[in-house]
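Example record

The entry below shows one chain as it appears in the dataset: sequence first, then structure tokens.
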Amino acid sequence: MAVVEVRNLVKEFDGAGGRRRRRSPARRGVRAVDGVDLRTEEGEYLVLLGPSGCGKTTLLRTVAGLEHPTAGDVLIDGHVVTGLPPRARKVAMVFQSYALYPHKSVFANIVFPLRASGMERTERDRKARWAAGLLGIEHLLERKPRQLSGGERQRVALARALVREPHVFLLDEPLSNLDAKLRASARDELKRFQEEIGTTTIYVTHDQVEAMGLGDRIAVLSAGKVRQVGPPVEVYDDPADTFVATFIGSPPMNLVPRDGVLVGFRPEHLLPAGQVRSADPVTVGLAVDRVEYLSGDRHVYGTATGVGEATRVVARLPATVDAPVEAGQQYDFAVPRDRLRFFDAGTGRRTEPERV
């Protein structure tokens, strides 16, 4: 197990996407990673979450040594590795494409990095079979990648990384090529796998379901910067700014303007007034214009008044809420006061709560 740390990490590219060397501030290019400070715990499953283009993959590749930073340092177990090549960092990376050799068998794919390192045949074969057994693919060793399902290919890529016995696993959206049903089972397997081996893992995804289900902590990125780091429940319940509040959650957090402050509340906390179990709820008038039925929930869309300026919001009503709600009608909804979150309307950052 290892601790990975990046200090004031910057990675710039020129406008054409090429690599940019250190230059004066006046000539800087596109900053894919912009002054990131981040540190894992030993044996932690840290998820880098953000939209496409936010810098999460560039950050991961810089930790791996596949990109050289414009500024800042990468440390593994307290040692600066910024100038070291990937092979000297004791990390293993699994890519979105899996990058398996199509003409080689599963066994040959798994054993390849050990053969390239010059390891003695008996030892490398033992390690390859051990990794295959851990991932449940020992019965596939003689097959070629084209004979495997997407989930099986993903396990082969993990086994190939595992045989190197890395200090750190770096996973770049390894489930993105799987269908929805297989992704769910693969998430469970990845979490179990990491818990069994205990290796520090950094996982990149744009999928908040993956992030919430896999991560011990989540680092939310936007425009090359880390917006918030914390356990999934903390990031969801107490977002640091309006970007985190609206990026995480489906539907996202409602934000209602009120005297220079944005009042935020999650859709599942906006319920018909009679259904709110709170000693001091905030009443919200809701003019409903649309109701959707999704996976047993009702998503109720409309215009809310009473908590701030008249604003479009959405309420998520679970099947357990037995209340008639129809489009074209006005209803009294409510939010528990302790579920309200407040943000500065100018900066978007969380601010101290106020009475509503």
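Notes for this example: Residues 260 and 345 are 5 Å apart (CA to CA). The longest helix spans residues 180-197.
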